[in-house]
Each structure stands twice: as structure tokens, then as C-alpha cells.
Design a protein that fits this description.
- The complex is a heterodimer of chains A (188) and B (378).
- By secondary structure, chain A is an all-alpha fold.
- Helices cover 72% and strands 0% of the residues of chain A.
- Chain A contains 10 helices and no strands.
- Chain B is mainly α.
- Chain B folds into 2 domains: 150 residues, no CATH class; 161 residues, no CATH class.
- In chain B, strands 3-4-5 form a 3-stranded mixed sheet.
- The longest helix of chain B is centred in the N-terminal third of the chain and has 29 residues.
- At the A-B interface, helix 2, helix 3, helix 4, helix 5 and helix 7 of A face helix 1, helix 2 and helix 14 of B.
């Protein structure tokens, strides 16, 4: 069944839509949530929450790519849950490692604890940053920091060596840092 | 700003790019790749399973339907009936053909269970002999659910199964009985939902989600709890009001009607009977037929009198909070009346029948508790 057909079912409030979504994307979403959270049970709950959110938001939303739409929700919910868990000192999955790596990308000003000017639209910046990357860089960057694949898995997906993948990631973090510094405005 | 902000900001990355870069391997959840790799194993395992099944059938022919249906309490020997409850449970559960025969023929919400319980009338009496009888009762319910959610019988998609499950969980969560009950019952039943009917997981998600919401402690600040479920037909409404006039109910002041369920487009009748306590209106509406396209709790909240506090009893019952347990609601919240209408009233509350009286069938058999606090109309 195509995404369009599934969205149509959702729009018509037909229950089988959720079953279809589960069949088509359940494994994908579970894998994503599990990489972020580590814990299978948490991941399963996040996927359930994701499906519910899809049910509640379509309509009015009409995503062109259901997979991407669900991924965004799932990732967001998993990260939220990770926050909760972190506050409970329960650790996390691959996302925790990815976050540690991304600390390198933060401008010094941000790491000094200086506040960040809200005029900087971070989401827009990241969107433009991702769009500016070449195909390989995009895949490496997003597989690691969006889909939270391990470095080894990312390397395999992109058909590069793990060492090469690490180098690409390192360069991308530097590049992101430059971009943030270039556009960021920081207060003392 | 921290790295978490960066991760969150990535939400805005173009869908097209996300689609293009999504993982393709097994870790991305692609089924075909996995299947391709494990296909030979599946083939071998299937062949082995077939051989084992054939062997089992030859060795132990299954009971016929007639045999299954004929089984009843009389099959318990006098010696077995004298066994301590926990041992009696084992004996009963071993004779599982009973349950299957009833569930296969079952439909509706509580009917099959009632029918089945009639057959077990002797045991129903037995279970009242001591507190351990509760274990038996719950084990029976659990077993019922187990079969109900088994593919080939009623599916868990059937709302009745869900409510039964919630009822079990509710009872399990009452601390009075915790020491005597097997905590795994509810969990294993939930596990069945997840593993046996994966396609229905999403269906469940909505309810689980709302249950979580209602489990928040801030939700439990009610001065009094008065309950009525919906939907209620015009005829039923008239009956209710004929039996429980405003005076009879003491606090029934108005009937609210919601004629149309937004979104679904289907026409239903749905009423709430609010009651007042110290000038405050507190009411309850169930979303029992939520999935059938009827009005949802949220929709109802939008339409209802702003002074009315509406919450879902099912959710309340299923909360982890022990305060949500039905008997506690009645006793701890000083409710003068706990009013339940609808054919699933019994299921919703999980209140054992010996608490409310013997029969819930028919308005003429309206039951009161000794304290006159709980009223159920089936």
C-alpha cells in the first residue's frame, strides 16, 4: 500500500490504517526508537505513542512521505523519553553517544554557558546545513545523528570503512560548529 | 544550547532528505532483507513444526467440540471440590476445554462470561468462602482473557477483551489483594496482546496513552465522584428518570444530550447525568464505544458544561493509583452515589458481583449495595 493510500485511510478514520502503518513501518520505527533508547520495552511504547500521534494529527496533516513524518514523531518522542530517563540516571542507547559527539559542534560561547540568542533559528540553520551537504555527507550525518546508527553501522550503510566514517563525521561536526559560530549570536 | 538542542533542531530537515538517507539494512527495519537471510531457517523450522504437530495429533487426538462443551463443574470430583483454593485453581485450569467452547460461541461484552459463570455456579459459591477465592476468580478471568485474545477466537480487537483485561488489572492493583495475587497475570495478559496480535498494538495505543494521562496524581482531586456511563438510549434515559427521578437521585439536575459525534459523522445518542455536590457539578462519561466513531472524551469536554468535571471511569479504574480502585472510590471519596449505567458497567468497574448483588440484568433488578452507594443497571 502506498503512503498516499495509508494517509487516505487515516483521513477517513479507518482503523486498518494503523494496522497498515504498523505493518509497513513498525519495524523501522521500533529500530529507530530502540537505537535511541536501548530498551526494547521503552522503544515499543514510543512506537505506540507515535502511531497514536499519527492518528491524531492526520488529518489535518497530509505528509508526503509517511515514513519521514513518522520518523520525526518517533525520534522526537524517543528523545523526550530519553530526557526523562536521563533525569532518572537510567542511561540511554546510541543517542547518548551521538549527543556526546555533538558536544564538539557547540560553539565555545555556548559551552561557556552564555545564553543563545533566540533570533538564531536553529532549526532553520540545521535544515540548511543538511541541505548543503553532498550526498555521502548527508547520509553519514543523518544516519549517525538522525537515525542514530552506530559508527560501524553507518559506515556499512554508506559503504565506507569505519575509520573513514569517523573522519567524515569529525569533519561534519567541525563544519557544523563553524556554521553555528558564523550565524550564532551569543550573550555574555 | 546543548547537543540535545541540536538533535531536536534536526526535526526540520526536509522529508525528502530524510527519506533518501533512511537506513536500508536490517537495522532500518526492512523486512525483506531479514527474511531473505533467515528464509532457509524458516523452512526447516516449519517442516519440523509440521512433523511435531502431526505426531502430537496422532498421539493425542483433540477433544471434540461436543466433549468440550459438555464439561462443567460436575466434572470436578467431590475430593477436588474440597481442595484448598489454590490447588483447585490448578485442577480447573487444566480442564481448559470448557473455556474454549464458550469463547468460541461468545459475542457481546459480558454475556459469554456470564454464561460461563453460570456453569460454574458451584465454584462461584466456593470462591466466596475465603479471601483466597479472589485468586480463583481472577485466575478464571485471566484464563478467559487468555483465550479471548488467542487468534482464532475473539480477537483482542474486540473491546470486550480489552475491558476485561482492564478489570483484571484493576483488581490486581487493589492492594488489599496484592499479597494473594499473582502480579504476573496482568502483565502476561498484556504480553499476549503485544505478541499475538501485533497488528492491534496501535489500536491499543490510544487507550494506553490516555490511561497514562489519567494516572497523573493531579487528576485525583475530586470532592465527590458520581458516575454514569454512555451511550444511553432515549428509552433508557426515560427508564432511569422514572426510577431515579431528580429527587430519587437527590442531585440529578439535568440531562445533557450530545447528538452528533464530531468526526465520525455517525449519529448517536449520548447523555450525561450530572450531579452536584456543594454546588459543584461532577460527572463522568465513559468513552466505551470510542473506537466505533462515537464522541471522544476530548470532544465531550469541549461540548460539556464548563463547570462539569468529566473523566473516564475506565481510565480511572485502570490507573496504577490504588485510589482508582472502585471500592476505594466509593469509600474514600465519600460519594453518596456511584451510578453506573450500561451493559458494560460490570466490566468497567471490575467490581465483583458479590459486591453489588447477584444480577445486573434488567432495570427492574437494579441493585444497591448495603450502603446504597453503588447502583448498576444493565
Amino acid at each position: 500500500m502506498t503512503d498516499g493510500q495509508i494517509v487516505q485511510l487515516l483521513t477517513e478514520r479507518k482503523e486498518e490504517a494503523l494496522e497498515t502503518v504498523q505493518t509497513e513501518y513498525g519495524a523501522f520505527l521500533t529500530a529507530l526508537a530502540r537505537r535511541i533508547l536501548g530498551d526494547p520495552q521503552d522503544a515499543e511504547e514510543v512506537v505506540n505513542d507515535t502511531l497514536l500521534a499519527a492518528w491524531e494529527t492526520i488529518p489535518p496533516q497530509e505528509p508526503r512521505s509517511l515514513k519521514a513524518y513518522l520518523s520525526v514523531i518517533c525520534r522526537h518522542k524517543a528523545l523526550d523519553r530519553l530526557d526523562t530517563r536521563n533525569s532518572e540516571k537510567r542511561g540511554g542507547g546510541e543517542a547518548a553517544l551521538a549527543m556526546e559527539e555533538l558536544e564538539e559542534s557547540l560553539p565555545d560561547a555556548a559551552q561557556d554557558g552564555r545564553s543563545w540568542d533566540e533570533r538564531l533559528d536553529l532549526k532553520d540553520l540545521i535544515r540548511r546545513f543538511a541541505a548543503s551537504l553532498n550526498e555521502t555527507e548527508q547520509r553519514v550525518f543523518l544516519l549517525r545523528y538522525w537515525y542514530f546508527l552506530s559508527v560501524a553501522e553507518t559506515a556499512k550503510e554508506c559503504s565506507v570503512s569505519a575509520a573513514n566514517c569517523k573522519v567524515i563525521l569529525y569533519r561534519l561536526r567541525k563544519k557544523l560548529k563553524s556554521k553555528l559560530e558564523e550565524e550564532g549570536m551569543w550573550h555574555e | 544550547m546543548n547537543s540535545r538542542d541540536l538533535l531536536e533542531a534536526m526535526d526540520q530537515i526536509d522529508e525528502e532528505i530524510l527519506d533518501k538517507t533512511a537506513p536500508k539494512g536490517a537495522d532500518g527495519g526492512e523486512k525483506k532483507g531479514i527474511l531473505k537471510r533467515i528464509w532457509p531457517l524458516i523452512g526447516v523450522a516449519s517442516l519440523a513444526a509440521c512433523l511435531v504437530i502431526v505426531w502430537l495429533i496422532v498421539k493425542n487426538p483433540p477433544a471434540t467440540k461436543a466433549e468440550a462443551a459438555d464439561w462443567d463443574i460436575s466434572q470436578l470430583t467431590p475430593e477436588e471440590l474440597q481442595l484448598p483454593t489454590d490447588q483447585l485453581i490448578d485442577v480447573i485450569l487444566k480442564k481448559d476445554c470448557l473455556w474454549q467452547s464458550h469463547i468460541q460461541s461468545g459475542s457481546g461484552v459480558w454475556g459469554p462470561f456470564e454464561e460461563w459463570r453460570e456453569k460454574l455456579n458451584g465454584i462461584w459459591e466456593l470462591e466466596k468462602r475465603d479471601d483466597a477465592g479472589w485468586t480463583l476468580y481472577l485466575k478464571m478471568m485471566e484464563y478467559y482473557v487468555m483465550y479471548t485474545v488467542t487468534p482464532g477466537h475473539l480477537k483482542v480487537k474486540d473491546e470486550a477483551s480489552w475491558y476485561r483485561l482492564r478489570a483484571i488489572q484493576t483488581l490486581l492493583q487493589q492492594e488489599t489483594f496484592l499479597s494473594q495475587l499473582d502480579q504476573d497475570i496482568a502483565e502476561s495478559a498484556m504480553g499476549l496482546i503485544r505478541t499475538r496480535e501485533e497488528g492491534d498494538t496501535a489500536y491499543m495505543a490510544g487507550r494506553v496513552y490516555e490511561l497514562k494521562e489519567f494516572a497523573k496524581p493531579s487528576r485525583w482531586k475530586f470532592e465527590a465522584w458520581y458516575v454514569v456511563t454512555a451511550p444511553m438510549s432515549e428509552e433508557m434515559r426515560e427508564k432511569v428518570l422514572s426510577v431515579y427521578s431528580e429527587e430519587d437521585c437527590a442531585r440529578a439536575i439535568k440531562i445533557y444530550g450530545f447528538e452528533k459525534a464530531p468526526q465520525s459523522g455517525s449519529w448517536i445518542e449520548r447523555y450525561i447525568i450530572p450531579f452536584t455536590e456543594n454546588g459543584r457539578i461532577v460527572s463522568y462519561v465513559s468513552v466505551d464505544h470510542w473506537n466505533n466513531g462515537n464522541i471522544t472524551l476530548q470532544e465531550l469536554k469541549r461540548e460539556a458544561d464548563p463547570d462539569m468535571i468529566i473523566f473516564d471511569m475506565l481510565e480511572a479504574m485502570s490507573s496504577l493509583s490504588s485510589e482508582a480502585a472502585p471500592m476505594r472510590i466509593v469509600s474514600n471519596h465519600n460519594a453518596a452515589m456511584f451510578f453506573i449505567v450500561g451493559d458494560t458497567a460490570y466490566t468497567y468497574t471490575g467490581i465483583p458481583q458479590n459486591f453489588v448483588g447477584r444480577s445486573l440484568s434488567g432495570l427492574s433488578e437494579v441493585q444497591h449495595t448495603a450502603e446504597d452507594q453503588l447502583i448498576c443497571i444493565h
